[in-house]
Each structure stands twice: as structure tokens, then as C-alpha cells.
Amino acid sequence: MPRTVTLRWEGRPNAYGGRRSRASFNYEAFVPDLIGKLKLSLPGETALAVSSAESEIRALNGGATTVGLEALGPLLLRAESVASSRIEGLELSQRNLARALFDPEAARGTARAVAGNVRAMEAAIRIGSEDRAFRLSDLTDIHRTLLSGVDDGIAGKVREEQNWIGGRLNSPLDAEFVPPPPGEVPALLRDLASFVNRDDLPAVVQAAIAHAQFETIHPFVDGNGRVGRCLIHVVLRRRELAPRFVPPVSIVLATNAAAYVQGLTDFRRGQVTAWCASFAISCRSAASESERLAERIGELQAEWRGRARPRRGSAAARIIELLPGQPVLSVATAHDAIGGSSEAVRLALNSLEERRVVRQITQGRYARAWAADELFEILNEYEHRLATPTRTSQPRRPSPRHERAHARADK
Q: Phi first, then psi: what are they for 112, rounded to 5°?
């Protein structure tokens, strides 16, 4: 059975706020059950939802619409990273993310943070693709990748102090959830790694439980939500359910933040199958819409070819193939990707600009960059279909500062 641990918060006379904010108090930290050997029986309705989700994910990975469109992988990854970051209060458009990935040194603030999320997702997929056991160090590696250059002081480090979600910045007073004390975290993470290495559960169920358990443990000072959603990619890739394309389930989860948070809360209360059913429905929606995205991108590339009429195998033809994966590029980045001569690439980009395939987005004659604006429009439509949250219906998510609020509690 899950349990709570009573901890003591020692008040600080100079703390901000009224008398209540400065007082000492007891609070409860939640310690979940171990899941390494969890036995689970799915009710019929949940089993059907899981089966449907896995069928859609297989169709996305093996369907005729996605064959030959490997650029779909980076597109879905960027969509997942933008949505996962949005859940944590980090807002960035696909266009600005593409520019940040094109020129990482120039990226600042939110753009740098979301670009780090892309790299963390890439690391998760790489780890899930390796033929070996999942290790605790894989989680810290993903976290280090996420926060590298953003917050190097905590990147890759399991917390050694108490943290909490919601409530106040300077104490767990009025916190929405208090994760396990730091002394409990290493054993819980080892158990989580053991669970990820199982192969006797449906992959979607395993991903759902692994994600919810990770969020419950909350093992890092910051970045837990984003790393927890990276873990979904690890599981689906590792179980070979999504060998090519992992659907961006975070877009659907972000659609209704209240339902997402409630699902995690229900999981902690023992309603595991209800959470698995909700997660499966999100996966199915993400996968089916991703197939439509692949079709639309193929149509757009055909439109580009019709406008530009490039010769087969020419630099312009190869750039058109490249654009979905690299929607912002320069002569140098395009040359690195397709080869040939730099002069041929330059002439091809100028020609594609004349035919409204790309648009120059930097000034000057040298070090120019171009963007495929129509591609961003399609991505915006895709995200809108998957997730149309309204600001009035969504509760305020804890900001990264709330998640990072932490202090030492008496044992």
C-alpha cells in the first residue's frame, strides 16, 4: 500500500507573508507502492482502448502514408517537445523552435529551454532503441541533456532535498502534492527501471504506468514533467511498438490539463486502469492525427515540386525532400545535408525562393537563412486538431518556479 511520511517544516521568522507563512508545521509526503513486480488485470473496456491505441501506433509506423517520409520523425518530435514544454508553462511556436534549432548559440530563454527538450526527446529515443537493459543512469542522462546550458547546476542530479508541486515558493504550505522524501527516491527509481525492463505488459500500459510513477517520484529539482514524458518515448521505442515514429501524446495531454493532472492523482489513489485507459485514448488520437499529418506533408511537397519543377536529383529537388525535417536552413546547413557544391545549393535556394517554396528570413547577402512558411502553417493546423485548449477551461499549471521550490525538511 502507498504510504505517507510526516515531515516537519521549521518556520522562518523573516519568511515572506503573514504569520501562517512564518510558522512551523507538519506536512505529509507521499510514498508510492513499488511497481517492479506489479500484477495488473485490465477490464474489457480498458483492454479495448489499449488495443486500439497500439493498432493506431503500428499503423503510423508501418502504413503506406509514412513510408519514405522519414522527415515525419523530426516533425513529431518537435511537436511533442513544444507541447510537453507548454504543459510546464513554456510557450514557444514551431517557427521559433525551428530557428532555435537552426542557430542554438543564438537561442535564449524559452527557446533554449524548448530546444533542450528536443535534445532530451532525441536522447530518449536513442536510449529506447539500444538493445540493452534500461538503467537509472539513463534517466539522469536525459535530465542532463534537457537542462544542459539552461541550469547546469542541477542537470543530471537526483534531488537530495524535499520538493513539492504548487502552493508556495518558499515552503510546502498549501502544496498540491508533496513527492517522496529524498531518502526514498533512489530505491523508487531502481524499481522504476526494473519496471521499464519488463516485457509482459502491453507497451501502452507500460508507458502509462512508468510515466505516472515517475511523476509521482518527482526525482529532480526541475524538469520532472518533461523527463517523465521523455520516458514515454523510451518505453514505446524500447518495446518496438513505435520503431520509426512516436506519436506526440503530450499534445493531447495538454488539451485538458485538468484531466491530465486528475489522471495522475487517480493513479496515486490506486485507479491504475482508469489512468491507462485515458492515456491509451490520448495515444490513439495522437497516432491517427499523425497519419493525417504525413499525408498533408506529402501533398505539400507535391505542390512545391509543381511550382519549382526541379530536375530529378537536382539540389532543388533534394532540398524539397529535406525541408520537412529542416524547415529553417542556410546554404551551409543544406549543403551539409544534401552534399553537392555550395554554389548549386545557393542557386537552388534562390530558385525555390522565387517560386515561393521558401522565404528568406534574415537580412543581408551573406549568412542568409530561409524558412518553409507553409510547413509551419500545416503544423499549426495539426496541433489545433489535436489540441484546442481554451484558457478559461484550463487550470493554472504549476510554473517551473513552483516545481523548483524546495527546502530542507527535518527528518
A: -65, -40
Beta pairing partners, 247? none
Residues 321 and 237 in one domain: no
CA separation for the pair 207, 310 (Å, rounded): 44
b vs e for 126-158, b when ≥16 Cβ sit within 10 Å of the residue's Cβ?
bbbeeeeebebebbbbbbbbbbeebbeebbbeb
Residue 27 lies in a domain: no
Identify whether 190 is part of a domain.
yes
274: domain CATH number? 1.10.3290.10
> Of the residues 291, 325, 351, which one is the last residue of a structural domain?
291
Whole-model pTM? 0.88
Say if CB 76 and CB 121 are below 8 A apart.
no
pLDDT of 93-126, one tens digit each?
899 899 888 888 888 899 999 999 999 999 999 9
Which residues constitute the domain of residue 147? 38-173+180-291
CB 288 within 8 A of CB 269: no
Amino acid at 226: R
